[in-house]
Amino acid sequence: MNLAVTLDDAGGMMFNHRRQSRDRTLLAELMDTCKGKSLYIYPYSESLLREALPEDGPELIVSEHALEEAGDEDWVFVEDRSPLPFADRIQTILVYKWNRPYPADLTFDIPLGEWTLSDITEFEGSSHDVITREVFIR
């Protein structure tokens, strides 16, 4: 499977049980990346991604067991839980970075030092001047 996450500079994913941002440009970029594939999400992310889903976007599958159910070619977007228990099934990790620190009570826990950084790009977001997109592969 392929994993997509959004992180602050310290690897933070959520603070006080809330996402750190709702950047529209980032969501559009994620939808374009996942086009033609299935994108599994958890119920927490449904309202955010339904708003961003274009007609020709990925097939959105909402499940409380997204990381367990996703197939080898599918994407999973995770905001509100640890993906570490499923790290051995992940082939690609797409990281969007906010390039600023936020308070966080949930942090990304897959050690990226064991992965190969295959691509890095920056783009202007709707709520952040610069968002960095990093692609890690096994």
What features would you describe in this structure?
The longest helix has 11 residues. The protein is built from three helices and ten strands. The strands form two sheets. The chain has a seven-stranded mixed sheet. The protein has a single domain, classed as 3-Layer(aba) Sandwich (Dihydrofolate Reductase, subunit A). The termini are close together.
List the helices and strands and how they pair.
Blueprint: E1 2-7, E2 12-15, E3 18-19, H1 24-34, E4 38-41, H2 46-52, E5 59-62, H3 66-69, E6 75-77, E7 92-97, E8 106-107, E9 116-123, E10 131-137
Parallel strand pairs: 1-6, 1-7, 4-5, 4-6
Antiparallel strand pairs: 2-3, 2-8, 7-10, 9-10
What's this model, at a glance?
This protein is an alpha/beta fold. Helix content is 16%, strand content 33%.
Task: State the assembly state of the protein chains.
Answer: single chain
Q: How would the global form be characterised? A: globular
How many domains, in number, for the residues?
A: 1
Structural class: alpha/beta
According to CATH, the fold-level topology is Dihydrofolate Reductase, subunit A
CATH superfamily: Dihydrofolate Reductase, subunit A
Count all strands and give the number: 10
Largest sheet: 7 strands, mixed
* Low-confidence sequence ranges: none
Percent in helix: 10-25%
Order of helices and strands: EEEHEHEHEEEEE
Number of helices: 3
* Nearest-integer average pLDDT: 95
Radius of gyration: 14 Å
CATH classification, class level = Alpha Beta
* Spatial order of strands in the largest sheet: 5-4-6-1-7-10-9
